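For practice. Supply one:
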Amino acid sequence: MQMEGSVGKMSDLLQEALSFIRTSYPELLKTEEEINDRVEQIKREINETDRYEHTYEELVYGAKLAWRNSNRCIGRFFWESLRVIDKRMIQSEQEIVSALYEHIDFATNNGNIRPVITIFKQKDHDGKLDIWNHQLIRYAGYETENGVIGDSSSIEFTKKCMALGWEGKFGPFDILPIVVQLEGKTPNFHEIPESLVKEVPITHPELKWFKDLQIKWYAVPIISGMRLEIGGITYSAAPFNGWYMGTEIGARNLADEERYNMLPAIGERMGLDIKRDSTLWKDRALIELNDAVLHSFKKHGVSIVDHHTAAKQFKKFEEKETSCDRKVTGDWTWLIPPVSPATTHVFHKPYDNEIMKPNFFYQKPPYK
């Protein structure tokens, strides 16, 4: 006899599955007969096993739709170009770590960055897999008597890594290890081979002293702390990446007071009066920092996009979606760039923040 809660969960899974099939299959140019056949197959599978498995085609298209439905992403124009690596069948920790290294290498592509997602087994399939990292590549943060060294947003995770036995070098740009945990097992850390991590030294096209600041940033932002949901199935480990928009590094990571807080040092070097906000020294320093980031990534052959170009690409995405009679959703507070937002069309347009599925969702870090 099945419990009422179990039946309800199965019903929810079935409804989510059918919604996904009826949305995706017509876009994949499937016939009504193919749709009905797949619906009946999924019904039988759920009735017999309390779950179902996506076909490879469903997995690929579902991941692409998750990107298309990501309200906070301004780079959705390229959703159809996402490469999907199916790693649902691998089980061992070493295989998983090797797959993550493979993702880093494939995505980096010597600087010509490829949007890619690696999808591991679904959450309820023979135990859960957790990747502890927020991003596969991230700099460590250390609390010291003289203040924070490195990335303050990584302090808690850095402490967890050190508790597992990792030894940080207490530098400003130490690459953190990857931490994975299989259900019921102890988490382990794995150092990322240096040869896999491409970093960009930040210099300025005109301000020669900029190199003396010794700033750098990693080439590929690979989000690994979110879960992917497709048709009611949750993949708790599904790291994905695009390429950076320059302001993510130049106006947030390196500029935020709570992060690397580089604006005062840049403002002083520029000879600006940094004691009075009314001199707009922060604005001037911010522009030069963003100029340096874009210049440096291009100089070293690493894909990056400026916020004006990204906004124009997003406008093309909106136009294409409208032409396909699809609703464009978005989170305005995330879509506007942190530098000169009013110079983009996004600033002047309202967006409906309705959450569509498939999609990516935040999940609580396993170590909290």
